[in-house]
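Thread: "does anyone have the structure for this chain?"

Original post by V.I.:
We have the sequence but no experimental structure in hand. Need at least a predicted one for the grant figures.
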Amino acid sequence: MKPSTLTPLALAALLAAVTPGPARANIFTNNFETTIVAERTKEATDELTKPTTYVAFDGGYVEAGDPESGDEPPPAAQVRQSVEAALAAQGFEESGKVPKLLIAYHWGVLRIDTLQIHVPYEVRQNLSARINLVSTQRMDAEIENHILDRERGSGENLNVSAPRFLTGELESVVSKAKRPRIFVVVSAYDYQSLFERNVAKLIWRTKLSAQETSGDMAEVIPPMIAKGTGYFGTDSPNVVAVEATLEAKAASLGAPTSPEPRPETYHLDPASMAKLLAHGREEISGESK
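Reply from O.Q.:
Generated one for you, C-alpha cells below.
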C-alpha cells in the first residue's frame, strides 16, 4: 500500500496549526538586537538629567496595529521590577516624598495597522509612530518629509512602503520601522512643574525596541530594559544598536521596591495623571481614542 503524502500546501497548513503566534527569527540563538534612542528636550537641565530622585508610573501595556495571537505579555510587576532595577543601576533613587522627576513608562508591541484610514498627503499615524519609535526627532522629521514630498510629487501612497533614496542611518530606520516591534518607552517629566502648575514638561525620553520575532515578550522586555540602563537621562545624536540575550520567562528580579504609586500620595491630580499617561499611550501607539 502506498503511504500517503502531504502536499506543500497541506504541510504549510499543518505547520501553521501546530505553531501558534508569530514566527521567531532567532531559532538558533538566544541573542537579539535592541535599538536604543535616547534624547533630551530643550527643557532639560543638568539637575534633571543626572541621576536623581523619581517616582515611576506604569502607563500600561500597549498592543497597537493588527492583532496577533500567541505571544502573552509579561506581568506588569515584572516590567516594573526591570525598570526599577535599571534606574537604580544608573544611580536614580526612588522617592516617597518630593521627587525631582516623574517617570512614566509604556510597554508592549507596535505592529503595522493595515486598517487605519489614510488621509491624502498625511503620514498615517501608525506609520509615524513606528518611525518615531526607532528614530531621533531629527531623523523622524526628515523621513516623514521625504515620504510626503514623494506622495505630493507622484500621488503614491507610501504609508506602508519604504521610501526610496534614503541612505545610511535613515534607510536603516525605515527598514526597522517596517517590522512589528516589542518596545519599552521611558519618559521623564519635571515633577515640580506638574505639582505647581499641572504642566507636563518632558525632560528626557529613552526608547527601547526589538523586532517582534526576537522572542516572546516576557523573554525580550527585561533584558531590553537592562540594555537601556546607561541611556536613561542621556542624549545620543544617533540611534544605537546593541546585542541582548533572551531571559528565561521564570527569571525574576524580586518584588518591586515599592507598590504602584498613587497620584494623591504625591499631591498630583489623578485626572491629570490619567490624561498624561493616556497622551503618552496615544503618541507611542499612533492610535487616538
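V.I.: this helps a lot. The two ends are 62 Å apart (CA to CA).
O.Q.: and Residues 1-21 have pLDDT under 50 and may be disordered.
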